[in-house]
Amino acid sequence: MISEKMMKLVGANSAIRVMFEEGRRLAAIHGSENVYDFSLGNPNFPAPPEVNAAIMDIITNEESTLVHGYMSNAGYEDVREAVARSLNSRYGTDFGHGNIIMTVGAAGGMNIILKTLLNPGDEVIVIAPYFVDYGNYVDNYNGKLVVVKADPHTFQPDTDAIEKAVTRRTKAIIINSPNNPTGVIYSEGTIRSLAAVLEAKQKEYGNSIYIISDEPYRELAFDGAEVPWLTKFYKNTIVCYSWSKSLSLPGERIGYLVIPSELDDYETVFAAAVIANRVLGFINAPSLIQRAVARCLDAQVNVAAYDANRQLLFNGLTDAGFECVYPSGGFYIWLKSPVADEKEFVADAKNFNILLVPGSSFAWPGYVRLAYCVSPDMIIRSLPAFKKLAGTYRL
Amino acid sequence: MISEKMMKLVGANSAIRVMFEEGRRLAAIHGSENVYDFSLGNPNFPAPPEVNAAIMDIITNEESTLVHGYMSNAGYEDVREAVARSLNSRYGTDFGHGNIIMTVGAAGGMNIILKTLLNPGDEVIVIAPYFVDYGNYVDNYNGKLVVVKADPHTFQPDTDAIEKAVTRRTKAIIINSPNNPTGVIYSEGTIRSLAAVLEAKQKEYGNSIYIISDEPYRELAFDGAEVPWLTKFYKNTIVCYSWSKSLSLPGERIGYLVIPSELDDYETVFAAAVIANRVLGFINAPSLIQRAVARCLDAQVNVAAYDANRQLLFNGLTDAGFECVYPSGGFYIWLKSPVADEKEFVADAKNFNILLVPGSSFAWPGYVRLAYCVSPDMIIRSLPAFKKLAGTYRL
Fold first, then answer.
1. Are residues B201 and B344 in the same domain?
2. Regarding beta strands A170-175 and A144-149, do their DSSP bridges make them parallel or antiparallel, or are they unpaired?
3. CA distance A21 to A17
4. Does B221 share its domain with B318?
5. How much is the average pLDDT of A10-35?
6. N or C terminus of chain B with fewer C-beta within 10 Å?
7. Neighbours of B388 (CB within 10 A)
8. What is the pLDDT of residue B395?
9. Residue B67: its chain A contacts at CB < 8 A?
10. Which of B280, B290, B302 to mutate to test the interface with A (most CBs of A within 10 A)?
11. Which of residues 1-20 of B touch A (CB under 8 A)?
12. Are residues B207 and B219 in the same domain?
């Protein structure tokens, strides 16, 4: 009786979420300390203390009808202004509140902008491996997903392949750097090359092709790596941000869209995106937490702790004989399955109470994803299990 | 360059929101104390103190990764269980957490359930006058809106007209009681009659026809009026609730869906709705406020204050000569325009710094809506302006 689209989704529920439920089941049997759950990007590190301090101060000192009430669908003007100023100071940009829409996380922002842009049949390019829900977001608006494979060695976008994939119907390309699942940061060279390809194609077709940049991992970059700020390289860029990772607030659903004034049809796109926020049922980003993050724009989670986890897990896995991409950002390790069918490997790992997500969930079989936003203790406890697992493959 | 659907919406932006912006403009000119803004359902009463006390306690005593972290897409199990128990104690039902999905407000809940149920072309009945975004929500999933007029005297749904409007493609009917914009509570007689019509039609067509009950005004019922709890009258009922009005938290975007176990295809509908919550980009209802409302299930805003406002404004308007529906619930007064074209009346009212929403925005020209969730002072200050406005019509 339900819709056909949803029937398919019920049949093939997100492997990541299934793994999350599986983790709870195994923990009930073996005790949670004996289950090594690397499946979900749910930060194990607390929010920085500034966040709760801000919440406390706001509910104590600001008026209830302001803090908990409606505001413009775009978000509080003072919050948007603070976000714009913070971006300007970091990236030398010139944004104002008219370039910012507060959103229900980056996922909310992506749905808003796709709703804004897509006519049925419009094509949206994604770079495999990619977060599986991009496909669902595009399908919400009856867009057509076009999957282009990343370079299989560097996992940077393959701009030659992208060039071939662009058609007259291409409306947007979604990119995600630092990348989930690979941990790769797209280099400035890649971005320049991508921008050049899109500029040429826009000219060829007389269309606008938008980059939708999904950036929840922006602040998690290691070894001094810089994540290029895309609006400086390509004017038709829309940034989707979330504080889920940078402030460990994934449950709060708080993020923003950046829609630069230089964007083609900026005024219409911005106005439509604000309306889309309303008609999709978000209405506005949650109010109290909007006001709280505006006070925490310079705060961040303990990046050094993520870095320590990264080293610990990467070294442990490679010592055990596994082959992994060394992540330069985000909080995932992308590991090459020792057998071609990585689902078999995931099943074997489960016998050692290790929970992994198969690469097939990211349209890239043969690899698995580990989320290391977990306690270092769990990583340490898991390493003997990984050794045993490797042993079964004679690594 | 944006989508055609959104282009239409940008052209015809919500009159309610336009009025909201207009109010800010007039306030800047005349001073906010000289503008009588009855346009937006943004509660002027603070949240009950229990809410901020709960927030304070939660951030002080509960762990950050729990309070701000991901949970199941359906919401925290303990929160859902608490909501179910609260409903059971009030309505003699037998819900458990498996019947509750925490949502980003009622608007989020409605989008989730429409996404779950609708195939393109499926029909959804609404009762005019109705909240204009119902049409946009249905259109998000390419459903077809079928508008049935309420009884023009009582503003109760006209069940004979509904019977005639149901077809083989009817998937759902959206009802809203206490009603926005009329303030009418649908009587038990109406509900029984509606249920009988739908039962017969389900039998005739061998289909399921769902009632989607949008209930943000449920707790705002006056003079001891009872709002019938629909799942007791019709098993294929899905309730969309929000704490926006009952706890004055409209900015926080917090509500829930009730999906009863007796519903046709309950398990599939529930599973699909949880997935829809994710793929639409909500992911989950905001986490901290989920935990807070679970502790405030017996709290509510000052209903007596709304009641006082209701009397004050209704008496003032009728004294001035206007004809209004006496509201039994919600926080709106539905006023008959003294001229056929109520948009002319709205424009005239603006000359007296009175902001009203035209009935056309609810598919019911000839009436206007006043939201009395405002300060009693503003009502008192507005009455002379209403008298002058009435004078121009020689009422």
1. no
2. unpaired
3. 6
4. no
5. 80
6. C
7. 13
8. 84
9. 251
10. B280
11. 1-7, 9-10, 13-14, 17, 20
12. yes
Q: By CA distance, what is B110's nearest residue in A?
A: A281
Distance in angstroms (rounded) separating the CA atoms of residues B164 and B98: 35
pLDDT of residue B23: 81
Q: What total number of domains does chain A contain?
A: 2
Question: What's the pLDDT score for residue B21?
Answer: 76
Q: What per-residue confidence (pLDDT) applies to B18? A: 72
**pTM: predicted TM-score of the whole model, two decimal places:** 0.96
What is residue A17's predicted lDDT score, i.e. its pLDDT? Answer: 65
* Domain identity same for A233 and A369: no
Distance CA B181, CA A380 (A): 60
The β-bridge relationship of strands A367-371 and A357-358 is antiparallel
User: How is residue B128 written in tokens?
Assistant: 């005019």
Q: Is the pLDDT of residue A1 over 90?
A: no
Q: What is the pLDDT of residues A323-353, one digit of tens each?
A: 999 999 999 999 999 999 999 999 999 999 9
Residue ranges of chain B with pLDDT lower than 70? 13-17
Which pLDDT score is estimated for B24? 81
Mean pLDDT, residues A157-161: 98
Kindly provide the ipTM of the predicted complex, given to two decimals.
0.95
Residues of A in contact with B278 (CB under 8 A): 14, 17, 133
What domain range is A113 assigned to? 49-294
Closest-CA distance of chain B to residue A31, Å: 19
Check if A252 contacts B (Cβ < 8 Å).
yes
Closest CB to A65 among B44, B60, B68:
B44
Say if residue B178 is preceded by a cis peptide, omega within 30 of 0: yes
Verify that A190 and A326 share a domain, yes or no.
no
B101 lies within 8 A of chain A by CB = no
Q: What is the C-alpha separation between A369 and A357, in angstroms, rounded?
A: 5
Choosing from B237, B262, B294, the residue where a domain stops is B294
Of B3, B5, B286, the CB nearest to A289: B286
B280/A140 Cβ within 8 A: yes
- Nearest partner of A166 among A118, A111, A223, A207, judged by Cα: A207
